[in-house]
Design a protein that fits this description.
This protein is mainly β. It has a domain of about 70 residues: SH3 type barrels, CATH 2.30.30. The protein is about 10% helix and about 20% strand. It has a four-stranded mixed sheet, with no helix packed on it. It is globular, with a radius of gyration of 16 Å. The protein starts with about 20 loop residues before the first helix and ends in a 14-residue tail after the last strand.
């Protein structure tokens, strides 16, 4: 069909953030990015975060917490400013956590 985008490299970033640092972009353009809790699926506090804008469901790296098993973000509860983590990456598909 001659579409110009066919040969373009796939992009997963926000196009209007030139350096792809969207957490920095959001911090600069929001009035406040409050800190909050990182909890497991049972609600146990495992650590604290510097703002939910820094996390994405499915994320494993950069959580700032340690565990015997790898932990993944399985949900983000924006209303309660909480990042929810779990051991099984696939559990995010079964999560009942509300999205941002």
């Amino acid at each position: 069909m001659g579409l110009a985008s066919v040969k373009r490299k796939e992009s997963r970033e926000i196009c209007f953030v030139p350096d792809n640092d969207y957490p920095r972009f959001l911090r600069e353009h929001l009035s406040a990015v409050p800190e909050g809790r990182i909890v497991d699926k049972q609600g146990k506090v495992l650590g604290h975060h510097a703002g939910i804008v820094n996390y994405t469901v499915g994320q494993r790296k950069g959580l700032g917490i340690s565990s015997k098993e790898p932990l993944y973000v399985v949900g983000i509860d924006a209303q309660n400013n909480t990042v929810i983590v779990g051991e099984n990456r696939m559990s995010m598909l079964m999560s009942s956590s509300p999205p941002i």
